[in-house]
């Protein structure tokens, strides 16, 4: 009788159906007595794989850093962090006794026009002054 039931179930089930299909349709679930143990072993294997992967990536990054350092040494380059630290230290040294914020660096030629304009205005004013006043202001 059991054999006939299995054959009928096989014939009535659609192609590709599995035991899980029977569970979804309300059939009884087979209980594995070692399921808990297998799950723990699987979790442990996953943790171990993750640790191995992290160790591998750490080794690869260490090798890359060695190569980077040899290139820096060869060409006299500095690390980005070192450059930033030096620039920050230079700014702090320059501003040490100042009460105001540090001035921003002005590229060459950006502020020169204003000085020339002021000088030309001063020269223009001096032209209109009498001779003795011109001599006093020029000194």
TrEMBL record:
<keyword id="KW-0268">Exocytosis</keyword>
<dbReference type="GO" id="GO:0019905">
    <property type="term" value="F:syntaxin binding"/>
</dbReference>
<protein>
    <recommendedName>
        <fullName>Complexin-2</fullName>
    </recommendedName>
</protein>
<dbReference type="GO" id="GO:0005634">
    <property type="term" value="C:nucleus"/>
</dbReference>
<keyword id="KW-0175">Coiled coil</keyword>
<comment type="similarity">
    <text>Belongs to the complexin/synaphin family.</text>
</comment>
<dbReference type="GO" id="GO:0031201">
    <property type="term" value="C:SNARE complex"/>
</dbReference>
<keyword id="KW-0966">Cell projection</keyword>
<dbReference type="GO" id="GO:0043204">
    <property type="term" value="C:perikaryon"/>
</dbReference>
<dbReference type="Pfam" id="PF05835">
    <property type="entry name" value="Synaphin"/>
</dbReference>
<feature type="region of interest" description="Disordered">
    <location>
        <begin position="12"/>
        <end position="116"/>
    </location>
</feature>
<keyword id="KW-0770">Synapse</keyword>
<feature type="compositionally biased region" description="Basic and acidic residues">
    <location>
        <begin position="20"/>
        <end position="90"/>
    </location>
</feature>
<comment type="subunit">
    <text>Binds to the SNARE core complex containing SNAP25, VAMP2 and STX1A.</text>
</comment>
<keyword id="KW-0813">Transport</keyword>
<dbReference type="GO" id="GO:0046928">
    <property type="term" value="P:regulation of neurotransmitter secretion"/>
</dbReference>
<dbReference type="GO" id="GO:0043195">
    <property type="term" value="C:terminal bouton"/>
</dbReference>
<dbReference type="GO" id="GO:0016079">
    <property type="term" value="P:synaptic vesicle exocytosis"/>
</dbReference>
<keyword id="KW-0532">Neurotransmitter transport</keyword>
<dbReference type="GO" id="GO:0005829">
    <property type="term" value="C:cytosol"/>
</dbReference>
<dbReference type="InterPro" id="IPR008849">
    <property type="entry name" value="Synaphin"/>
</dbReference>
<keyword id="KW-0539">Nucleus</keyword>
<keyword id="KW-0963">Cytoplasm</keyword>
């Amino acid at each position: 009788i059991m054999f006939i039931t299995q054959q009928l179930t096989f014939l009535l089930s659609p192609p590709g159906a599995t035991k899980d299909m029977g569970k979804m349709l309300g059939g009884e679930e087979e209980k594995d007595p070692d399921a808990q143990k297998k799950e723990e072993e699987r979790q442990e294997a996953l943790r171990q794989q993750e640790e191995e992967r992290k160790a591998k990536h750490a080794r690869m990054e260490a090798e890359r850093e060695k190569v980077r350092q040899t290139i820096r040494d060869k060409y006299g380059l500095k690390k980005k962090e070192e450059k930033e630290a030096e620039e920050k230290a230079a700014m702090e040294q320059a501003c040490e006794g100042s009460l105001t914020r540090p001035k921003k660096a002005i590229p060459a030629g950006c502020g020169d026009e204003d000085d020339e304009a002021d000088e030309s205005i001063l020269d223009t004013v001096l032209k209109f002054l009498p001779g003795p006043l011109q001599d006093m202001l020029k000194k």
